[in-house]
């Protein structure tokens, strides 16, 4: 009598691993304060580094030589990153005026540290806003279901708010010093501007765009400080009991914002 073969044992299916949510555009977060303010922060950061990093100006003085009735114009060109101690005076023809080698005389001050910190920080904020908007719009479910991402976003928002205050304040103080160093006081600092050579302050390029850069620095601080509340609402700190309960039951915490 033929023996019966033992039944085949089937292995239980392996537990499925959680997969990262696929990129899917969802513009609804942009209608909420969290996403809408992030767009404003992105635009404001562009104005912050563009108005400062793209500035170029010059200051002019009129030089009157003895025995010569005609005045000569001497110009010093400066711009970002505002190393004024490297901006030398030059005549239009490049020749000496009143037997003075004006190329050896420069403006006073080096404000590159404040300017470069401000512009570099603004560029990093610009890049972070792009990454955050991609996360809000393309990975809405991933951001909503995660507990770490909103917390990281909240911490970065607080740090960024503080750094905007520091960088804008430092750059505002440096801009005040730049205006003094390139204004009327430059005549008193130039060694050749003494008898018999007479020097008169001519003009200096308007620094309205630099004033705008300082304004946008503090505007960014206000935007990031105000947005901290909406980012905080996405974290488990806002409603820790409900969030922990939903995670403990294997569910998804209810969205508080986006």
Automatic annotation (TrEMBL):
<comment type="similarity">
    <text>Belongs to the synaptophysin/synaptobrevin family.</text>
</comment>
<protein>
    <submittedName>
        <fullName>Synaptophysin like 1</fullName>
    </submittedName>
</protein>
<keyword id="KW-0325">Glycoprotein</keyword>
<keyword id="KW-0812">Transmembrane</keyword>
<feature type="domain" description="MARVEL">
    <location>
        <begin position="29"/>
        <end position="236"/>
    </location>
</feature>
<dbReference type="GO" id="GO:0030672">
    <property type="term" value="C:synaptic vesicle membrane"/>
</dbReference>
<feature type="transmembrane region" description="Helical">
    <location>
        <begin position="151"/>
        <end position="171"/>
    </location>
</feature>
<dbReference type="InterPro" id="IPR008253">
    <property type="entry name" value="Marvel"/>
</dbReference>
<dbReference type="Pfam" id="PF01284">
    <property type="entry name" value="MARVEL"/>
</dbReference>
<dbReference type="InterPro" id="IPR001285">
    <property type="entry name" value="Synaptophysin/porin"/>
</dbReference>
<feature type="transmembrane region" description="Helical">
    <location>
        <begin position="117"/>
        <end position="139"/>
    </location>
</feature>
<feature type="transmembrane region" description="Helical">
    <location>
        <begin position="210"/>
        <end position="232"/>
    </location>
</feature>
<keyword id="KW-1133">Transmembrane helix</keyword>
<keyword id="KW-0472">Membrane</keyword>
């Amino acid at each position: 009598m033929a023996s019966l073969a033992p039944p085949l044992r089937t292995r239980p299916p392996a537990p499925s691993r959680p997969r990262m949510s696929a990129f899917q555009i969802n513009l609804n977060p942009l209608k909420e304060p969290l996403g809408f303010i992030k767009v404003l922060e992105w635009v404001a950061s562009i104005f912050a580094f563009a108005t400062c990093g793209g500035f170029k100006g010059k200051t002019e003085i009129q030089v009157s030589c003895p025995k010569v009735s005609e005045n000569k114009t001497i110009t010093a060109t400066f711009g970002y990153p505002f190393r004024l101690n490297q901006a030398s005076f030059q005549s239009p023809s490049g020749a000496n005026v009143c037997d003075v080698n004006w190329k050896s005389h420069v403006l006073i001050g080096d404000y590159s540290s404040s300017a470069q910190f401000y512009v570099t920080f603004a560029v990093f904020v610009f890049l972070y806003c792009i990454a955050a908007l991609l996360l809000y719009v393309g990975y809405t479910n991933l951001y909503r279901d995660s507990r770490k991402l909103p917390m990281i976003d909240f911490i970065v928002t607080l740090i960024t708010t503080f750094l905007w205050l520091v960088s804008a304040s430092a750059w505002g103080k440096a801009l005040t010093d730049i205006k003094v160093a390139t204004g009327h006081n430059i005549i008193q600092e130039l060694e050749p501007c003494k008898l018999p050579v007479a020097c008169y302050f001519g003009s200096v390029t308007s620094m309205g765009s630099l004033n705008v850069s300082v304004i946008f620095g503090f505007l960014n601080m206000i935007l990031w400080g105000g947005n901290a509340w909406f980012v905080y609402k996405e974290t488990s700190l806002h409603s820790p009991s409900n969030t922990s309960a939903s995670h403990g039951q294997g569910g998804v915490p209810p969205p508080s914002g986006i």
